[in-house]
């Protein structure tokens, strides 16, 4: 069974994390969720959902989901021997981006990201900020150079989205594609006849 760690920070875009988690657990993938304090607050503010209660409701249907304590550096995901496949930080705040890019492992989320990098596992950063300043770009560039993948929350419009769900599914589908997790959340680009 694949094991994925999903990090949620205080950037806007909690809806991406929610949809990603729903898809992962429905596919039988062990999903460990780590949320910063601000991540929990923004999740509640944007989605009108208490993250802890929402995960407990998911557990009524799926046994493969766990909400981690971000202060618990004794968690399995804090160790390279735990064997998770990837860490996805979605949405990723610029503060968390800076901590990860500078190797600051002062909480479980940053430690799990550090473990992914040191063990050569996939680390996916989904930054949600606009505009980016030079510090943000330098931090993303630094992480990209050492093996992280940056998938900005920039949905495409070539599949003619009609709803917010279409936009969210596009981004989550892109993340899943990168992780080689089969999905049909959006229509992939195909040869297209177009008259100019």
Short overview:
This protein is of the alpha/beta class and 196 residues long. The chain has helices at 14-26, 37-47, 51-59, 94-101, 108-118, 134-145, 164-178, and strands at 3-8, 30-35, 65-68, 86-92, 122-127, 149-150.
Low-confidence stretches are none
Radius of gyration, Cα only, in angstroms?
16 Å
H/E topology pattern: EHEHHEEHHEHEH
The CATH superfamily name is Flavin prenyltransferase-like
| Number of structural units classed as domains | 1
CATH topology: the name is: Rossmann fold
Level-1 CATH class name: Alpha Beta
Which range best describes the helical content: under 10%, 10-25%, 25-40%, 40-55%, 55-70% or over 70%? 40-55%
Specify the CATH architecture: 3-Layer(aba) Sandwich
Task: Identify the strand order in the major beta sheet.
Answer: 3-2-1-4-5-6
Q: How many strands in all?
A: 6
Structural class: alpha/beta
Characterize the overall form.
Answer: globular
Keywords: Flavoprotein, FMN, Prenyltransferase, Transferase
Organism: Clostridium saudiense
Pfam families: Flavoprotein
EC number: 2.5.1.129
Mind explaining what this structure looks like?
The structure is a single chain. The protein has helices at residues 14-26, 37-47, 51-59, 94-101, 108-118, 134-145, 164-178, and strands spanning 3-8, 30-35, 65-68, 86-92, 122-127, 149-150. The chain has 196 residues and is an alpha/beta fold. The protein has a single domain (3-178), classed as Flavin prenyltransferase-like (Rossmann fold, 3-Layer(aba) Sandwich), CATH 3.40.50.1950. A six-stranded parallel β-sheet has the order 3-2-1-4-5-6, with helices on both faces. The mean pLDDT is 94. Its EC number is 2.5.1.129. Keywords: Flavoprotein, FMN, Prenyltransferase, Transferase. It holds the Pfam family Flavoprotein. Residues 2-177 form the Flavoprotein domain.
């Amino acid at each position: 069974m694949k094991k994925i760690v999903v990090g949620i920070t205080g950037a806007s875009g909690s809806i991406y994390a929610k949809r990603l988690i729903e898809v992962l657990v429905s596919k039988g993938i062990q999903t460990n969720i780590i949320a910063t304090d601000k991540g929990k607050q923004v999740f509640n503010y944007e989605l009108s959902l208490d993250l802890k209660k929402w995960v407990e409701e998911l557990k009524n249907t799926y046994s493969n989901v766990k909400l981690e304590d971000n202060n618990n550096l004794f968690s399995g995901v804090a160790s390279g021997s735990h064997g998770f496949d990837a860490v996805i930080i979605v949405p990723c705040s610029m503060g968390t981006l800076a901590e990860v890019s500078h190797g600051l492992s002062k909480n479980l989320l940053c430690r799990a990201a550090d473990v992914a990098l040191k063990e050569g596992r996939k680390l996916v950063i989904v930054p949600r900020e606009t505009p980016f300043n030079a510090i943000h770009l330098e931090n993303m560039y630094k992480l990209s150079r050492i093996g992280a993948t940056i998938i900005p929350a920039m949905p495409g419009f070539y599949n003619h989205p009609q709803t917010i769900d279409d936009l969210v599914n596009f981004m989550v589908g892109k993340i899943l594609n990168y992780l080689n997790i089969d999905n049909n959340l959006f229509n992939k680009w195909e040869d297209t006849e177009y008259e100019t």
